Every structure is written in C-alpha cells, then in structure tokens.
Amino acid sequence: MSASPPAVLGRLLRSAEKLSLGAVWCGGALTLASVFLIGFDVVARKFFGFTTGGADELSGYAFAISTSWALAFVVLQRGNVRVDVLYQLLPVRVAALLDWISLVALAVFMVILTYYASFVAETSWLQSSAANTPLGTPLWVPQGLWVIGLAWMCVVLTLMLIRASTALVTGDLATIKVLCGVRSSEEEALDEATAGERMVRGEIA
Description:
Blueprint: H1 5-48, H2 55-76, H3 92-126, H4 140-170, H5 173-180, H6 185-200
Helix pairs in contact: 1-2, 1-4, 2-4, 3-4, 3-5, 4-5
C-alpha cells in the first residue's frame, strides 16, 4: 500500500532537515576557519611583521556562504524572526492562516532573491570577473556557493509550503503550527531545558 502524500512530504522534510543540518555544520566550519585565519593574520602582523593577505576578503565570503547555508535549517526549526505581539491573542484558525501567509511571503521573497543572486553569479562567470584584491578571487566561486544556499532554501520552502497548504485545506491546524507557526515561550523554554540536560550528560559541549 502506497504512502499518503502528507506522509511522503513528512519524510522529505525530515530528509531536508538532515541535509540542512549538515549544511549548517559546513557553514560553521567555514566560519571557524575564517576566525583562525584572521587570528593568525593578526598575530603574524603584530609579532613577525608579515601578513597572509586576504583574510578579510575570505572571511567576508565565509560569512555570506555560511549565512545562506544556514537559512533552510533556521526556517525548519522555526527560528526566523516574526512579530507576535498580537499573534498569541488570535483565534487558532486565524493564526494558522497567518502562518501560511507568512510562509508564502517568505517563499516569494526567497525566489526573487535567489533569481537575482543567480544572475549575479552567472554574470561573474560569463565575464570572468575577479575581485579587485591581491588574491584576485574569481567571483563566481563564492557567489556560486552563496547561491547554492539560497536555492536550497527555496527547495525547502517549497516542500514546507506544499505540506502547509495540504494541512490548511484539510483543516489540520496542528500541523501548520508545528511546521511554520511562531514558537511559543513554552516551546523555547522546553528546548533550553532539553539542551541543558544534554549538556549535563556531556552530549554537547
């Protein structure tokens, strides 16, 4: 017996979350590497009178890439910022509709951003553009890695939007809340408590 569409979407979203977590780790490693490079450059300049050159440039690329690669995981964890002053006071159905609308708005924004970002990267590739720095970095390389993160965000948002739309049509308001609703203070407190317990057990640093 074949699985239902919501079940298939649920599995796809879980797989997307694992891939997104891997992307976050890669972005974090990239950021950490740039920190070490800047630290080494500062020490070398101060005590040995030379510089590696390009540390500031490479750290800028690392920041942009790691940020775009983290976007999908953030939205899957409902970590994106939303103003919820009135949200908590609204009826459940109205709140669910606003959750869906906010997801649509975010998806539209990301598609537009990704389109123009890919245009920039493509232009750099076609024109063989390079940074006006001693490194002369081919700009399509960092721009392309940046666009990959944005494109993956669009893929994840598409999956989320299909699942949320299905839930909205069927009246599954709980799924909409779990998928794209604003995190309550109780949920945040529970997550912090869970993280604290894991830290005490030595599972996380």
